[in-house]
Amino acid sequence: MSGKRTPEDYVFLERLGQGSYSTVFRAVERNNSTKNYAVKVCSKRHIIQEKKVKYVTIEKDLLNKLGQGGHPGIVRLFCTFHDAENLYFVLEYVSGGELLNLVRKHGPLPEVWYKHLFAQLVDTVDFMHSHGVIHRDLKPENVLLSHEGRIVITDFGAACSITTAGRDRSASFVGTAEYVAPELLLYSQCGLSSDIWALGCILYQLTQGIPPFRGENELQTFEQIVHLDYKWRVVTPQQVVTLVQSILVLDPLLRPTSKHLKQNPWLSAINWENKSSLWKGIWELPEKVRNRQGHAQERPVTTNNGIRPARKKPTQTRSTSAIVEWRQKLGLNSLPSPPSSTGNTRSTPNNQVQQPKLRNKPQRAHSQDSSSTPPISTTHIISDLPILKRDVVRTLEIPFNSAQTALSFESFSSVDDSAITEFVTNNKSAILNRSSTCAMTLDAKGNLSYLDQNRTEKHMISISDPELSMYDFEFDEDARTGFLILEKYKSKLWFIATAAVDSTSYPDVRTFNSHKSWVDSFFTARNLTATTENRRPRSAPNTNSPSVPRSAPQVATPRVKLKPKTNTSGSATMVVSSSRYEVLHTLSNSGMKGSDASSGASAAFRSLKKK
């Protein structure tokens, strides 16, 4: 294609599909009707209203970048143009339909098929990742089949580059419920390993005919994901089961990379360098594969010169609000970072094909000072349990007072993001000046306590307390800046800082795991507590009581990440990357209203029932 294009250069035929802000049509050039194209038409008005301009630009740039490699598994972008109302993406037309339709028609596929298709997916994802591109929405609907039956990955509307993935956290609620990675649910983070997770889900679906995680609604699906709650319903080769289990793990650092997948024993017969063999379509495979009923597999039925019927793609709005709602119910008020562990929180199913059970491996604390819990020479912190972390910090405690109208140093009645933001912004120095140095300890049961300078032992709160909320105001332990803020609903508010700490105030107190962050330690305590609760024998449930989750989700302590912003007046203010207002607004629109809802994120914990 040469020269500037306009809509008048094309004849638009039937609609192929529709997304949240775009519609895809089959089209041919007006002067050459022999070649089909898939033209994606994006409404400028909708893009601007939904603040999608950046993502449309990223999609174009990444498709152009990947297109330079000429990989057969990436949909080709021929050109883009626009008019007053729309943006137009002229894409490769892929006539064989979606991979999802193949699975829906035939159910579980023969091994020779799903191995060939999975190998093509791995090769394509490896190509994307080697060029620094994360798709972020891999699923059978976004995998098309050519007329010969080879895969083509499409829909890069949620894609991002590795260099921008870390900065794009506030907009990282992407993907589809059944294929969303646990790190997105728990931490709002998405990386290369999130694509690998999706590959594991797809491989499972090719062998079983359904996705591994599918609840009655999206919230139940999310629960299944973070519990790795899936079963093998169709007898599957053990190598495939083992491969899927190695992918579907909670810790993204433990998942194989795309290059590791190429070395998997199950794929050992694949010649990755022989592209002509690797990229044959499944309809071109040398042996005639028969399905379980003994009938020869057929090519997908198409209509009108190979055109598949249009199907409206579900929008992502519900998935996004469902993730927000799910996180709110679990007290995950925004964006905590995952533990820095390389795998001690891993939880995987076992190798029994029919019904794998979950193995929970709680993270162990490792000390830089001693291999066991260090003693305190002259006194002891409240808990005699194993210690996860102990360090010297500064704390300021503010009590609850229902008569108080605003947050002050004397008391508080209710808090929200804007109140905390305003208070900290206006009183950073005063908070530090009024705070006291203490030795704070977190034990294995999640009890947080401290020893003040008078050597008085005080219990603060349990990390598993359902009425605890946590906020992060530029808290950086390495740089010794910001505050970690804990709120016990209608009880206490604590400001914790590592700035201006005089560790010599406690010569008799030995720090423990000082190299590990407090937030990571809270996460570990929460996991240990959940594991202990799961192991306790339970009495028969009361049939008149509401149903509760079968096991406590392995989630981090709730945390709201507050980020700086400068307003027009020049004074420093703060904004919230995932505000409680958004969450409560979503819940209110869903009919989940209550008098406590406006009192703060801690009210969300009231709906979290522990076993």
Annotate the secondary structure layout:
Blueprint: E1 10-18, E2 22-29, E3 32-43, H1 44-49, H2 53-67, E4 77-82, E5 86-92, H3 99-106, H4 111-130, E6 133-134, E7 143-145, E8 151-153, E9 160-161, H5 162-165, H6 182-187, H7 192-208, H8 218-226, H9 238-247, H10 258-262, H11 275-278, E10 311-312, H12 317-329, E11 347-349, E12 358-360, E13 387-399, H13 417-434, E14 436-443, E15 447-451, E16 457-462, E17 468-476, E18 481-488, E19 492-497, H14 518-535, E20 560-566, E21 572-576, H15 580-589
Helix pairs in contact: 4-7, 7-9, 12-15
Q: Can you tell me about this structure?
A:
- The structure is a single chain.
- The protein has 611 residues and is an alpha+beta fold.
- The protein folds into 3 domains: 86 residues, Phosphorylase Kinase, domain 1 (2-Layer Sandwich); 238 residues, Transferase(Phosphotransferase), domain 1; 181 residues, PH-domain like (Roll).
- The chain is 27% helix and 21% strand.
- A hairpin with a 3-residue loop joins strand 18 and strand 19.
- Helix 7 runs antiparallel to helix 9.
- The longest helix is centred in the N-terminal third of the chain and has 20 residues.
- The protein is elongated, with a radius of gyration of 27 Å.
- Its EC number is 2.7.11.1.
- Keywords: ATP-binding, Kinase, Nucleotide-binding, Serine/threonine-protein kinase, Transferase.
- InterPro entries: Kinase-like_dom_sf (IPR011009), PDPK1 (IPR039046), PH_PKH3_C (IPR057614), Prot_kinase_dom (IPR000719), Protein_kinase_ATP_BS (IPR017441), Ser/Thr_kinase_AS (IPR008271), Ser_Thr_kinase_AGC (IPR050236).
